[in-house]
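User: Could you check the structure of this?
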Amino acid sequence: MENQYIIKFEDVVAKDANQYASELTTLIRSLGEDIQVEQTRDNARTQDAGATVLLILGTPAALALARGIAKGIQAILTKYRDTRIVIEGPNGMKLDVKGFTGLQAIDITEKFLRNGHTEV
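Assistant: Sure, the predicted structure tokens are below.
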């Protein structure tokens, strides 16, 4: 079963959100082929690459990479300290992350990604 997560960068200008989304997409893609990740636009009329990251975890192998994905989110939060990341998961689940760095960000995000998967 696939679980879709939408990762958005809140409280920043569009240009910065696009950059953060691009960096996070690159970090997640580097984890392997079992993860489907795509940078998307919130508004189809704009010409930017998009400020939203669409992440699909569908296999146990992809789910096993949840810690790596969490580390990517932590890297963005550490690099851009004032960034607020909102992750929308399956069944209306939502995680709002701001001000976390280090292991705290990794642990919270990893648990959220794992708990959203119905086979865990």
